[in-house]
Design goal:
27 helices, elongated
Length: 721
């Protein structure tokens, strides 16, 4: 627990140190009137703090300082100029939101730049020279940047280490979810197990993507330090473990029934649980900077399961399922070998390549942004929605002359609360209201507890640090502490804190109401929820995944990087579907007639990915298969027909689907009926094609009810909820 705490402390060290230094400067230089922009500059810099190697951090700081300078100066220049200020804020909101199309890093800096423009308005004082606000905000930004570089030099590997650690925790959860499939006393809950596994798989893929991006930026320009190579090795092992665990070789309900009275199925479940615990041990030892040492029980479990399988195979030597159980055990042994390899010292740097999309150059950036100029793009709808609300809010503030009452708190609330989709916005606005109400209540007690400047500055330090600590973990707590920080800053600047309490609360309520109105009525997501596009991309990525595996099997070689890319795309699209279904589940009244079909499609796609992954895990063993003429003439034509059917599935009529499926089904049955096939090495890949093929009809049956319809029925409008 102490190590976990230390890890969290390291993450908040820059903000804690920077705010402490800022408060000391405020106290020493007696610049209480400029305390708010200085502290807000520190906070704005913390919002755009991005993990990178040292040179990358320095580049990010350079671009951040330039962006913050322009944003603050432009805002300061147009402030109190009526329509010009309204138009400027609207344009900046749209521009900075659309920049998010280029990538997460651009999106983060752009959002921070937009926040800086709002901080400039909030810290504005009529009697203060025009350059003071931008100067103090940039001073806070540079202060935080200097501290974060210093902390990075002291703990250069900690952020990457944390991401790899989280990857193994997510992998452990996935293995635990997989282990329940081998419970012989619980074979009736297969649907719920598949849904749980799909959600856990989405979590694994999301964390893997974070790890891949972090490794990509640290390994650019062949920058391969020994520790980075070690973390790359851990990441690659985690990917390989996931591929083996994701593989499915049979119908789990049938297997559980068949092995119900054998100790083999219990040993399989126990081994998966032990491997999940080993992944958690790896995560903990990464946090402790210790080398992983596998538990002796893991080795004993591998030995025991091998002996149990030998006994079972002797008793059931005619069972056609033996080859699939053997393949499953081979995968489990492979996972064991991967875990064992992580306990061995690394002798040379990891040479496998990390791929991540990195858009550079103005023309490519503009092209990527231009691709999103359509209402089918959630980003464009969010940008339009947010810009229109900013236009309305700024107009109201200017028209009713609310600047002196900090009316732009409404705008700040909108920017932080309004999310790209309804469910996320609804959750965020609830958290914002709760945090603000609690913050106002506790903030009203500040004058009784902080009578000196030193005490008030101490509150600012504590509240700012805790705001950063909770900002990604619990938004209610984060809002609570930033409210305390703001009220303490008002007190330091000499404002009547009680005069700020009610406006702060009212502004928050108005801002959250406008945000709710925006996501509910302005280009509402449910009107554009076209599952046909999502599922079409999903099926095409599944087809590409299978195509690459088949090509590797056929020609006996393949590019490992390309394989991992097509595999990731398939899992990324599965994660998109999982996210959509999860959002629909949060608002079941609107999506009742589509939700059940969505869950069914999610379960079937999870099974399909498992069957394809089993072939992917088998691809290294296919060298001897490529020399068999019979196998070449039977396996590959069937596989390519399945790939074609997957690729076209969302566009086929029922008759067209049946015309394509029946020849596949007949060919597989004829191949499996060959007497010599059951005991040959060809059984496993052909059986996998059979499993994939048998999944195609229910998969197609789910698609017309969910993918070919655009959910635009007015009776499901959000007002009905």
């Amino acid at each position: 627990m102490l190590i976990k705490l230390n890890s969290k402390i390291i993450s908040v060290l820059p903000i804690a140190i920077a705010v402490n230094i800022a408060c000391v400067l405020i106290w020493l230089l007696n610049i209480t009137d400029q305390s708010m922009p200085l502290i807000l500059g520190v906070i704005a810099a913390s919002l755009v703090d991005l993990d990178h190697r040292l040179s990358g951090r320095l580049k990010n700081i350079f671009y951040t300082v330039i962006a913050f300078s322009i944003s603050s100066l432009v805002t300061q220049y147009f402030l109190n100029q009526g329509i010009w200020f309204v138009l400027t804020m609207t344009a900046m909101t749209f521009l900075f939101t659309m920049i998010g199309a280029v990538g997460q890093r651009y999106s983060t800096i752009a959002f921070g730049t937009l926040v800086v423009s709002l901080y400039t308005t909030l810290a504005y004082l009529p009697d203060t020279p025009w350059y003071i606000n931008p100067l103090m905000i940039l001073s806070g930004t540079l202060l935080y940047s200097f501290i974060t570089v210093t902390v990075h030099l002291c703990f250069p590997n900690r952020p990457l280490q944390e991401k790899i650690s989280r990857a193994f925790v997510a992998l452990a959860d996935y293995l635990d979810a997989k282990s329940v499939f081998f419970d012989p006393d619980d074979v009736e809950q297969l649907s719920q197990k598949q849904l749980t596994l799909a959600m856990k798989n989405s979590q694994v893929i999301n964390v893997f993507n974070e790890c891949r991006t972090a490794l990509f930026y640290r390994m650019q320009d062949n920058n391969r330090y020994s520790y980075t190579s070690k973390m790359c090795r851990y990441y690659m092992s985690a990917q390989d473990i996931h591929e083996k665990a994701n593989s499915s070789h049979f119908d789990y309900k049938t297997l559980a029934t068949q092995l119900k009275n054998s100790d083999l199925i219990f040993r399989i479940q126990r081994l998966l649980e032990l491997q999940a615990q080993a992944c958690r041990d790896i995560a903990q030892q990464l946090q402790k900077n210790q080398d992983f040492q596998p538990h002796f029980r893991l080795e004993r479990a591998i030995s025991g399961i091998s002996q149990s399988f030998e006994l079972y195979s002797q008793q059931h030597n005619a069972s056609p399922e033996l080859v699939h159980i053997k393949t499953l055990l081979d995968n489990l042994r492979n996972i064991h070998c991967q875990l064992q390899s992580l306990s061995q010292p690394i002798h040379e740097p990891e040479q496998r390549t990390i791929y991540s999309e990195n858009i550079t150059g103005l023309s490519k950036i503009l092209q990527r942004i231009g691709q999103h100029f359509t209402f089918q793009s959630p980003l464009f709808r969010h940008a339009m929605r947010l810009s229109l609300v900013v236009l309305i809010c700024c107009s109201l503030v200017e028209y009713f002359h609310l600047q002196t009452d900090r009316g732009y708190w409404i705008l700040l609330t909108i920017i932080f609360v309004c999310q790209p989709n309804y469910s996320a916005t609804k959750l965020r606005l609830k958290q914002r209201i709760i945090g603000t109400i609690l913050g106002v209540i506790v903030g009203s007690l500040l004058p009784y507890m902080t009578s000196t400047l030193e005490a008030k500055l101490a509150v600012v330090v504590m509240a700012s640090t805790l705001f950063y600590f909770f900002r990604s973990n619990n938004y209610s707590y984060s809002t609570f502490f930033i409210t305390i920080q703001v009220l303490a800053s008002f007190d330091i600047m000499g404002f009547d804190i009680y005069a700020a309490l009610l406006p702060r609360l009212i502004d928050t309520l108005i801002g959250t109401a406008l945000a709710w109105f925006a996501v509910s009525y302005l280009w509402s997501d449910w009107k554009y929820l076209q599952l046909n596009n999502v599922i079409s991309q999903l099926m095409k990525s599944n087809a590409n995944y299978l195509l690459y595996i088949i090509s590797h099997l056929q020609f006996g070689k393949g590019d490992d990087l390309k394989y991992r890319i097509v595999r990731r795309h398939a899992h990324d699209n599965a994660t998109v579907l999982s996210t959509i279904i999860s959002n629909m589940n949060n608002e079941p009244k609107k999506y009742t007639q589509h939700l059940q079909q969505g869950f069914e499609l999610l379960k079937l796609n999870t099974a399909l990915l498992g069957y394809i992954s089993a072939l992917g895990a088998y691809r290294e063993q296919m060298q001897k298969l490529t020399q068999d003429v019979y196998f070449l003439s039977e396996f590959y034509p069937i596989a390519k027909k399945i790939i074609e059917l997957l690729d076209k599935m969302t566009t086929l009529s029922a008759v067209q689907f049946d015309d394509l499926f029946q020849p596949i089904n007949i060919s597989i049955k004829n191949s499996l009926e060959q007497n010599d096939l059951l005991s040959s090495v060809f059984n496993m890949p052909m059986q996998q094609l059979n499993l994939i093929a048998q999944l195609l009809p229910p998969l197609y049956a789910a698609i017309p009810q969910t993918a070919t319809q655009t959910i635009q029925d007015n009776k499901h409008e959000i007002t009905s909820t």
